[in-house]
């Protein structure tokens, strides 16, 4: 049965299944049939557009990154080959596929019970982020129920973090009542909140590095398209440092500059289409909230979990992500004790900074600073997990590239918080697991009781970055 359902989801894909889910949610919210069907179509078209652009852009930027890494001469034993191998392995394990099916039921149940206000089921494709950690735990412990519990626990605390940042994400990316809740791209909310007072003390909030400021001060050169060209030339040069006297190298540099500019220009257009899928749903949610206010009941604002590809091409997001690429390569070289060489998943950095972007209101200096701190810690987490990840991925069906000793996924494994929780569970020590559970329950209690105060604090915090 599990294999049949897995094949069903694989055959139809996100561009079909997600629109169906959106259509069902719309009807449940009493959206007119005509609007509900158009919401579904827009969702499918938007996801298809995201996939097309990213699929075309990924091999181009990956080539530049590989050249950049080769130019540094860095030789580290744990090589990042991208998240795809981990995703494949997670679907090849009994723990992973069990979570994929029953995790969906669990997501619906905890939403119905009000434990979470994020409807994660609308973004089920990112469930592999939970599945891979359960898969690794099962490989280490051979304890099925403990490993499955780890995946479910990671889902629970991810939803708490997703709801904490939901109001900021929804406002910044201008998609009402929507948020992202993928395990591999949500924990950056923590450093974005905790480190913000430090950045303000250092005056980072007074350094006006935002897309809006670029437009005002640089004119035509501050437009996203122009910034894409400029940033593309810089990264292209870094990837061709050894061949700058070669005409072919300059051809590659200029082509990459235009390709990056194309992504920064086209992605917002696709985002606008994708956002149309949620407008009727957001309006229906707002309408319900107004009715609750009239009845003097507490508004039950909730959020749809959507694909984090929607924010990839936002100017501050992609600029920060691209700038962090050479920075992370350099840090991998200089950090003492690091064994991880980030390569393929560096293209995922714009996904990885989305929550930071929303919380800091697009302050590029803060985004980069947070990324440097958190992803540096992530390199150590990935280094520790290198042998476990390699053996588990190989065991559950992914092919290890020839000549590579150990592999990792910078996007999936360079996660300090997730690594700590994983360590607690595989220890099988009731004390460490209990600390994780108690911490989650405390956070959930505080969120349920003080959600509006938390959101107000984050709003005021983000406003300190306004020009």
Structural overview:
The chain is mostly helical and 467 residues long. It has one domain (43-210, 258-464). It is built from 20 helices and 6 strands. It has helices at 2-12, 14-28, 33-72, 84-92, 94-112, 128-141, 144-172, 189-194, 196-201, 211-218, 224-238, 247-276, 279-294, 315-334, 349-352, 354-359, 364-395, 410-413, 416-426, 430-463; strands at 78-80, 118-119, 178-179, 303-305, 340-341, 406-408. The chain has a 3-stranded parallel β-sheet. α6 (128-141) packs across α17 (364-395). The longest helix has 40 residues, at 33-72. The radius of gyration is 22 Å and the shape is globular.
Please outline the major beta sheet: 3 strands, parallel
In order across it, which strands form the biggest sheet? 5-1-6
Instruction: Give the C-alpha Rg.
Output: 22 Å
Report the portion of residues in β strands: under 5%
- Number of strand segments: 6
SSE order? HHHEHHEHHEHHHHHHEHEHHHEHHH
- The outline comes out as globular
Q: Poorly predicted ranges (pLDDT <50, ≥5 residues)?
A: none
Discrete helix count? 20
Helix proportion range: over 70%
By secondary-structure content and strand pairing, the structural class works out as mainly alpha
Distance between the terminal alpha carbons, to the nearest Å? Answer: 56 Å
């Amino acid at each position: 049965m599990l294999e049949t359902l897995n094949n069903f989801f694989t055959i139809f894909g996100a561009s079909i299944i997600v629109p169906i889910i959106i259509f069902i949610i719309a009807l449940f919210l009493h959206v007119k049939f005509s609007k509900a069907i158009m919401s579904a179509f827009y969702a499918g078209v938007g996801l298809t557009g995201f996939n097309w652009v990213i699929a075309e852009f990924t091999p181009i930027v990956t080539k530049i990154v590989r050249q950049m890494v080769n130019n540094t001469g860095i030789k580290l034993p744990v090589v990042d080959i991208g998240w795809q191998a981990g995703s494949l392995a997670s679907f090849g394990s009994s723990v992973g596929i069990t979570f994929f099916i029953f995790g969906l039921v669990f997501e619906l149940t905890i939403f119905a019970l009000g434990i979470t206000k994020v409807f994660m089921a609308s973004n089920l494709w990112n469930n592999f982020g939970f599945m891979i950690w359960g898969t690794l735990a099962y490989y280490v412990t051979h304890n099925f129920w403990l490993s499955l519990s780890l995946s479910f626990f990671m889902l629970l605390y991810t939803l708490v973090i997703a709801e904490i940042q939901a109001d900021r994400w929804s406002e910044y990316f201008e998609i009402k009542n929507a948020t992202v809740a993928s395990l591999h791209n949500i924990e950056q909310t923590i450093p974005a909140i905790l480190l913000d007072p430090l950045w303000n003390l250092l005056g980072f909030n007074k350094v006006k590095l935002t897309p809006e400021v670029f437009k005002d001060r640089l004119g035509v050169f501050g437009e996203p398209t122009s910034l894409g060209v400029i940033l593309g030339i810089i990264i292209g040069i870094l990837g061709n440092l050894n061949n700058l006297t070669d005409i072919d190298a300059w051809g590659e540099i200029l082509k990459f500059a235009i390709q990056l500019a194309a992504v920064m220009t086209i992605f917002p257009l696709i985002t606008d289409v994708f956002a149309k899928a949620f407008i009727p749903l957001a309006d229906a949610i707002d309408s319900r909230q107004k009715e609750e206010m009239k009845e003097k009941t507490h508004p039950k604002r909730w959020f749809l979990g959507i694909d984090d590809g929607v924010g990839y091409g936002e100017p501050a997001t992609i600029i920060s992500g691209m700038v962090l690429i050479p920075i992370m390569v350099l840090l991998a070289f200089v950090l003492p004790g690091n064994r991880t060489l980030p390569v393929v998943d560096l293209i995922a950095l714009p996904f990885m900074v989305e929550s930071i972007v929303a919380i800091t209101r697009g302050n590029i200096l803060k985004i980069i600073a947070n990324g440097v701190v958190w992803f540096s810690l992530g390199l150590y987490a990935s280094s520790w997990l290198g042998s476990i990840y390699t053996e588990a991925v190989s065991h559950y069906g992914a092919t290890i590239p020839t000549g590579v000793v150990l592999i990792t996924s910078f996007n999936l494994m360079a996660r300090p918080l997730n690594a700590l929780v994983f360590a607690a569970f595989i220890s099988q020590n009731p004390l460490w697991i209990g600390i994780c559970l108690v911490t989650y329950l405390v956070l959930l209690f505080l969120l349920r009781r003080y959600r509006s105060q938390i959101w107000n604090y984050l709003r005021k915090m983000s406003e300190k970055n306004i020009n």
